[in-house]
Amino acid sequence: MVSSSVVRLAGFGWQAEVLPAYGMNLICLARSGSELLRTPEGETQLRREPQVYGMPLLLPPNRTAGGAFTFQGTTYHLPINEPVYGNHIHGSLARMPFRVTEQTATSVTGFYENRGECYPFPFAITVTHCLTETGTQHLFTLCNTGPKTMPLAFGLHIAFRAKPFFAVPIGQRWEVDERYIPTGRLLPLTSEETAYRDGSDACSGKLIRGFYTAAGHTARIGGLCMNAAEPFNQWVLWNGDGTQDFICIEPMSGAVNALNSGVGLVQLQPGEAKTYTVRLYPWLP
């Protein structure tokens, strides 16, 4: 697996591994010995693509057109790390080292403070991964530590191992241009996408890719439920090229390119904090 320092948690039938050095990523999660998340074969693989394994943090999530946005009269630039489309994608928070501030057998909390190295607004983020009797809880608290209002779009690129069934409460699909930037137009779901909403066995074997509004907050994959509470208000679905036996079910606060469109964008005042919560728990028929 990964050679960087790993925090191992166990309890209530769950086992987890967290990597503070890689954005506090919940890189492994198992229930009663059954692996639930896509895990890299080694650190080289993780270092190359940290956003496609485990539960990586995205800030800003997905694409920012041209790697630039204007907020309150000032234009800011992000690295063009998707050169084929000329966009910035996913931010670099998944690569940032966190400091563990609290740890027990069943929970771990990590802290990271951005002073401009991964986003042009200073902020602090605290992440807690916790195993409980009813499932797992994952808390992400971001605080604006700067003197100016901070535009905030946040998401998680959760990579699940493919299961025979998944259902995600998607609402409408965002139309996108040739660079995968939403045009602003919302479209009805296709029959295939309706199956993604109501329940599909097509986790792998064909390409799945789309940006959607959220019509609900609880998704299911196999025997696992995932609840992504408000302020998460968007879903992204993606399974690579469709042949790698995983699917990313990505809750996002703010639409793709929210820093430019403003759709779902949170504005944090100086000293203000926002907490995002995800819960994973067994599906009960």
Structure description:
This is Aldose 1-epimerase. InterPro entries: Aldose_1/G6P_1-epimerase, Gal_mutarotase_sf_dom, GH-type_carb-bd. Pfam families: Aldose_epim. GO terms for molecular function: carbohydrate binding; isomerase activity. This protein is mainly β. The chain has a single domain, classed as Beta-galactosidase, Chain A, domain 5, CATH 2.70.98.10. Helices cover 6% and strands 46% of the residues. The protein contains 3 helices and 26 strands. The strands form 6 sheets. Strands 5, 15, 16, 18, 19, 20, 23 and 24 form an 8-stranded antiparallel beta sheet that branches. The protein is globular and about 50 Å long. It starts with 6 loop residues before the first strand and ends with a strand. The model has no long low-confidence stretch (mean pLDDT 96).
Briefly say what this structure is.
This protein is mainly beta. The chain contains 3 helices and 26 strands. It has a single domain, classed as Beta-galactosidase, Chain A, domain 5, CATH 2.70.98.
Quickly give the structural class: mainly beta
* Helix fraction by DSSP (H/I, runs of at least 4): under 10%
Kindly, what is the distance between the CA atoms of the first and last residues, rounded to a whole number of angstroms? 34 Å
User: Got a strand count?
Assistant: 26
**Which CATH C-level class is it?**
Mainly Beta
Proportion of residues in extended strands: over 45%
CATH architecture, by name, is: Distorted Sandwich
In N-to-C order, the SSE pattern is: EEEEHEEEEEEEEEEEEEEEHEEEEEHEE
Number of domains: 1
Shape: globular
Number of helices: 3
Low-confidence stretches: none
Q: Averaging pLDDT over every residue, what do you get?
A: 96
Under CATH, the topology can be stated as: Beta-galactosidase, Chain A, domain 5
| Major sheet attributes | 8 strands, antiparallel
InterPro entries: Aldose_1/G6P_1-epimerase (IPR008183), Gal_mutarotase_sf_dom (IPR011013), GH-type_carb-bd (IPR014718)
GO molecular function, one term: carbohydrate binding
Protein name: Aldose 1-epimerase
Organism: Faecalibacterium taiwanense
